Amino acid sequence: MRFLDQPPRFLFFTGKGGVGKTSIACATAVQLAADGKQVLLVSTDPASNVGQVFGIAIGNHITAIPAVPKLSALEIDPQGAAQAYRDRIVGPVRGVLPEAVVKGIEEQLSGACTTEIAAFDEFTALLIESPLTAGFDHIIFDTAPTGHTIRLLQLPGAWSGFLEAGKGDASCLGPLAGLEKQRQQYKAAVDALADPLRSRLVLVARAQRATLREVARTHEELAAIGLSQQYLIINGQLPQSAIEQDELAAAIARREQLALAAMPAVLQSLPIDYVALKPFNLVGLDALRLLLVDDTPATERVTLPPAVLLNAPSLSALVDDIAADGHGLVMLMGKGGVGKTTLAAAVAVELAHRGLPVHLTTSDPAAHLAETLEGSLPNLAVSRIDPHDETERYRQEVMASKGARLDAAGRALLEEDLRSPCTEEIAVFQAFSRIIREAGKKFVVMDTAPTGHTLLLLDATGAYHREVSRQMGSKGLHFTTPMMQLQDPKQTKVLIATLAETTPVLEAANLQQDLRRAGIEPWAWVINNSVAASRPSAALLRQRAQNELKEIDAVATHHATRYAVVPLLKQEPIGVERLLQLATPADEAR
Q1: CB-based contact 488:323 (threshold 8 Å)
Q2: Is the pLDDT of residue 454 over 70?
Q3: What average pLDDT score do residues 451-459 get?
Q4: Which of 14, 15, 21, 199 is catalytic?
Q5: Where in the chain is the domain with CATH 3.40.50.300?
Q6: CATH of span 307-396+424-583
Q7: Residue 247's CB: how many other CB atoms inside 10 A?
Q8: Which one, out of 337, 405, 445, 489, has a CA that is 20 to 30 A from the CA of 73?
Q9: Catalytic site includes residue 442
Q10: Domain 2-291, what fold?
Q11: Residue of 15, 17, 18, 178 with catalytic role
């Protein structure tokens, strides 16, 4: 594996949900420890399942892995980090500043933006020389810092005085107010990230066009802020030996080859490794030791019980219930890589095909609805919330209103704040609010951005709701906010998209808990790209199908009040005809 040639001290693994970055990070840690190196494996993912992979509880402290000498692990707790971060900022000013100002600071520190910065705050301590990490030869991070977070840390640091003077209440002043005290540590951390002798960033992807486009965007974003030492792993590629006489396997192999042939040019120049699709679940040491090895044991044929397929509801059944209301908001949510865009398009196309008026839109910057639809359909309107356009509109509005009351220095600081990535979340929220108002008269189907961005959007929605409640409630006036609409199951149906694999299901379950804390009850789960629902004959795929049954059962019995299983199709679901196939019962779709 080229990414393991003369590895530096810091290795970062990043990629969309479901691509296998946690498994590869764990397998790398096991291999380096087997080579005699002292290794620390760190997860910065809120949905971390590193402990599950090794079969032990880890948590927010360095824990030795008993079964692997020289290997320790740490799971950073973002919520705990955020609370400590809030306490550090608010504590010194409590009792000093007026209570109204303190409450304002606490409100600004309540969102997901603060949580992201606080988690970065914790792991930067692992990137600088300290007694905590002095004994480790390698520190491996599962889920690298995003460009979003690093850009925040590179902003100038005069926020505390600006905030205390009461001159600003824009997007990120609260979270940024505490950065100045840590500025030296952050600078050392960012320098370490950008040093190819100390750090290596490994992008993990699948041989899928959408995933490769997304990882290319990540590559360019991180390279633009100095993280240029990058490698690429194409994970889960179907080996030619597994095709046998199976039409589905042959079709998957062709799709993967076409995707790799069309790989974005910025990725082609990177050192690339290929990891073959394995027939087993990547949990436990035996599986991890085999992941990065090419000569894995031959797959034994398995018998796939047909009963689970006969009992699994189709997407069409969910659309029947959605269509019965005549109008409403349908939101597809989930981690990146699970097929939200495709599923949103399939639901919208099926509703329009039934003669119902539908507006299909997306808040995902990486979404390509036009490419997915590949055409038009009566009753279907398509739009995209363009983050760049919405952000520029929002900046102009804020400068014209709040900026008009500031002096030159205040305007300069406000302009700097409005260049932060959090501004985009607020701007997108405003556009989101405009669109969902249409759901009172027609169906609005929304393909949301990956989970982290969606939670930021919900934070903005919640903050707006609380502010309106304070202002309008005190006057006894009736009002309806976007958050109230999202919380009303008669107006909004949230569909959580996932895959029938351990990590995506775990991440979807965590998303469901986040939504419930916001007062939003998911309406249904959709298990996408199910091999089990396609009834393959090739041995490797049959074993993969067998492994899916446990995850499908967990969704059906523990997580979802209703669910649907969408089969993996032979042809990529692009175009109206193939999208309609996704909403067809599995037996008919084959």
Answers
A1: no
A2: no
A3: 51
A4: 21
A5: 2-291, 307-396+424-583
A6: 3.40.50.300
A7: 13
A8: 337
A9: no
A10: Rossmann fold (3.40.50)
A11: 18
